[in-house]
Amino acid sequence: MIATLEQATKLGLREEEFEKIKQILGRTPNFNEVAMYSVMWSEHCSYKNSIKWLKTLPRDGAKLLVKAGEENAGLVDIGDGWGCVFKIESHNHPSAIEPFQGAATGVGGIHRDIFTMGARPIASLNSLRFGKVDNPKTRWLIKGVVKGIGHYGNCFGVPTVAGEVYYESCYQTNPLVNAMSVGVVRVGQTVSATSHGAGNPVFIVGASTGKDGIGGASFASADITENSAESLPSVQVGDPFEEKKLLEACLEMIPTGALIGMQDMGAAGITCSTSEMSAKGEHGMIIHLDKVPTRQQNMKPWEMLLSESQERMLIVVKKGREDEVQKIFDKWDIHCVQIGEVTKDTNLKYYMNGELVADVPAESLVLGGGAPVYEREYKTPAYFEEIKKFNIDSIIEPDDLKEAGYQLLQSPNIASKRWIYEQYDSMVMTGNTQTNEASDATVVRVHGSEKGLAVTTDCNSRYVFSDPYVGAMIAVSEAARNIVCSGGVPVAITNCLNFGNPYNPEVYYQFVHAIKGMGDACRKFDTPVTGGNVSFYNQSEDGPVYPTPTIGMVGVLDTLSQKMSISFKHPGDSIYLLGKNRNDINCSEYLHHICGVEYSPAPHFDLEEEYQLQHRLQKVIGNQLVKSAHDISEGGLFACMVECAMVNGLGFTITTDKDLRKDAVLFGEAQSRVIVTVNPDLHALFEAELRGLPFTKIGHVNATKEIVIDDHNWGYVSDWKEAYDTSLEKMLVG
Amino acid sequence: MKFGVIVFPGSNCDRDMQHALQDDLQQEVVMLWHKDRNLSMFTKNDCIVLPGGFSYGDYLRCGAVARFSPMMEQVINFANNGGKVLGVCNGFQILCEAGLLPGVLLQNDHQKFVCKNVYIKSESTNNLIGVNVGEKALKIPVAHGEGRYYADAATLKQLHDNKQIVFRYCDEHGEVHINSNPNGAINNIAGICNEGRNVYGMMPHPERACSTALNNIDGRAILMALN
Amino acid sequence: MKYIAHINVMPLKELLDPQGKAVNSSLHNLGLTNLHDVRIGKHITLHVDAPTKDEADRQVRDACKRLLANQVMEAFDFTLTEG
């Protein structure tokens, strides 16, 4: 059954790719082989349209124990013999079709990436984008996605500790669901996704293989249209209970030393795991597909090769030590079946009932090997002209600033996410310090050490849309700023690059410039990129989504006592603004959602200024000169202050700059600003430490629990808190 | 005196319980596997803990499958002989399914999983925990989808008459009212004990409130009551 | 006319049914090894006011498609009795 070009193109391969396969094999491939190449050479697995630019990102650093792309996830040294493994990944398209299972399997998949390296996941984060809340479809998506994330994470037993969610109409048809997992491992106890040693047995462990998710990887690389709902087999069902058992069994097995390598099965299932492990170990495999435990009878070879059934792993074991491994999986009631063995010959040979059904060089399938690499064209987006036209003077300052603030605080992009996060178990594993003391980045303790990890996901995609280069720098900077405000030192990032169709030159422009900005910022903060995920084709009939390069950042606190929280602590403490207010409402939530302006430039940002701010902030926090720190982001100074005040129900009294627009001071989103509180006895020491950095003492924490701005009383903090806390749930329940 | 913590497949608060008892409260802890059948190293002074989680994925009904595990047969004997048993969250559900405690835990009235700090208050000093925790409202987290305690009128009357209600949900000032009830539990019931006062079940997680690193140690008095 | 619809909503055969799988293995642990292929779905009953059985059928089918079953993952069937 020789494959035809027509079949190949139906599976998403291009004509020249089909020719390339013929060259590699020295013959025309059969259907099974074409199916394998089509998935392995899809954007999802091969990064063929992005790898050229991804390679420009800083991928090396003193604390990196594994270089980006070498393993399933990044591994950084956090000291005291501990390593941290972390990664973010998208599950956008599956979630658009079936939000509950799409989000659930996204969470399951990213955790597998972490424990397949031998690390125990200790924190889960996410980054979500939906259309407007007032749309019933959006509400259905939000409820499904949140329930799915909760269902999987809660049962699996890893706390969901942080996240972000934004609502913009560009995400109406194509929501974004990015999930991040952070794990810890003793240095030296990690497992590699490799395979070598001829004769070593290859096992499939975990769930049985079914027809679900076949072609899911290709599916992720195709545009979403209304008809996608009919492409049924692409849905996968997650089983967090199976994965929990798999986690415990894998972590119990690793210390035995019986393993050569292990890789989880995500996209392209058996094909991807056998080829990537073999290519890395420069060996081949013989696989007997008829030995794979299946959920359905009469599965065809290509169905088994491509199945994306969840909760499965491929492991290569040292010959002679099979029994030890088998015993552990038996204890946890998990399938562990030998399906083949490692060969010196570097081809992958798949048999079905003794018949050779596919025979391909492992290396030819994978990224960095035979997979194609393309350079795409890009051009400056036409909508930049609209952005240039924006003039702040065309926006009239509102008479009633309090009313504008009230609306802003209840905007779904700013209001409390309580309705969402209370559905996640955020406390299991007893490591999340956020529960009883909120900080900008969530600080999670590492049991068995003094250390804390500060973790955050950040991306304001509206900024990236306005200026991809600056917007991506801001995303990295804000993540780092959140970690510094929490008392941590930023260490490294993982990225999830959500963009539209890369064959659209304007989309590709966004991609290229976002990568450039990200790279520059990461170099500045010495936070290399340890890995991540590219998700193209996020668009609908109305066009691409905002370019959304989500940053997941990890920082380290040497001891938990270094943690800094956001809350105002005592009446009488002075409130300082670090950085500088500006006459800038560009791209702000205020301008976009209250004034209704769609196009404006990115807010003020200067990388050097940001660097200096963080540098100084680290010092004053480290020297215990401040009692709280919270960075100014969406909603500006005002939203920031209310968030600090609400935690303990204390009020604040401030004076704003006379020579600036009031709306710019209160609601503008110029970057590189942080609000801190200081004990009045420490003013002199504190100010001395800040030499060279612009700062202003803007007011003090009050005991009357009221908000007082320029002598105007804006009412009680408790009333603002009530509006802030309940806004989203009112919209969602309605 | 020692604690035994049972690990079912799908338990996920077993290690938290171990940490709290061992590291925060300096107790001796033995981890027990659900397939084992040996509790001979435990005496009446000891306490067996059924931790939270999703035993057997919570499939079919929470706790329904775990109740049939080999170790649970031993726990039922241990309890019937007067041994101390504590079930937290999923552990509470298992104890109800096993018939060691009356009533059931239904899906939350709002039909969502809920994880947050809540306050609970001891109802009576007529049991080990009540004696130890005093009258103060304790801040203890809940995390469950099916935590709405329910029992029929006759059972409720019995629970009340025998003073078997251990905890009720309240606000930070100790007031018990509908707004302080996170799941719709009947009469705000958060925890109960059996007639013999040796078997305890509660939905809130005391093991999540035992560490100074987490800024909440309200749970210590609850666990230490079973010492 | 009044009818009663007895509706079964089951996970699609092609998809994993984690609940069915876990209950299956638990039955085996209890020694009931002759029982297999457990699948767990929902049974729904509802009352329909409709002039004819065909019309009742149409309305129930519509309800199944639009709300009661998620056809991405679930299949449904039903019977109508006069009630």
Describe this structure in words.
The complex is a heterotrimer of chains A (734), B (227) and C (83). Chain A has 734 residues and is of the alpha+beta class. Chain A folds into 3 domains: 51-190 and 425-562, 60s Ribosomal Protein L30, Chain: A (2-Layer Sandwich), CATH 3.30.1330; 192-365, PurM-like C-terminal domain (Phosphoribosyl-aminoimidazole Synthetase, Chain A, domain 2), CATH 3.90.650.10; 394-405 and 566-733, Alpha-Beta Complex (Phosphoribosyl-aminoimidazole Synthetase, Chain A, domain 2). Chain A is built from 26 helices and 27 strands. In chain A, a hairpin with a 2-residue loop joins strand 2 (74-79) and strand 3. The longest helix of chain A is centred in the N-terminal third of the chain and has 21 residues, at 136-156. The radius of gyration of chain A is 26 Å and the shape is globular. With 227 residues, chain B is an alpha/beta fold. Chain B has one domain (2-224): Class I glutamine amidotransferase (GATase) domain (Rossmann fold). Chain B is 22% helix and 26% strand. Chain B has helices spanning 14-24, 70-80, 90-97, 128-133, 153-161, 220-224; strands at 2-7, 28-33, 47-50, 84-88, 104-106, 114-122, 138-144, 148-150, 165-170, 189-193, 199-202. In chain B, the strands form 2 sheets. A 9-stranded mixed sheet of chain B has the order 2-1-3-4-11-10-9-6-7, with helices on both faces. A two-stranded antiparallel ribbon of chain B has the order 5-8. In chain B, strand 1 (2-7), helix 1 and strand 2 form a beta-alpha-beta unit. The radius of gyration of chain B is 16 Å and the shape is globular. The N and C termini of chain B lie close together (7 Å). The model of chain B has no long low-confidence stretch (mean pLDDT 95). Chain C has 83 residues and is an alpha+beta fold. Chain C has one domain: Phosphoribosylformylglycinamidine synthase subunit PurS (Mth169, Chain: A), CATH 3.30.1280.10. Chain C is built from 2 helices and 3 strands; from the N terminus they run E-H-E-H-E. Chain C has a 3-stranded antiparallel sheet with strand order 2-1-3, covered by helices on one side. Chain C starts with a strand and ends with a strand. The mean pLDDT of chain C is 90. Chains in contact: A-B, A-C, B-C. The A-B interface holds A 147, 150-151, 154-157, 239-242, 244-245, 331-333, 422-430, 432-433, 435-437, 445, 447, 560 and B 9-10, 12-13, 15-16, 19-20, 35, 52-54, 56-59, 112-117, 141, 143, 145, 205, 207-208, 210-211, 213-216.
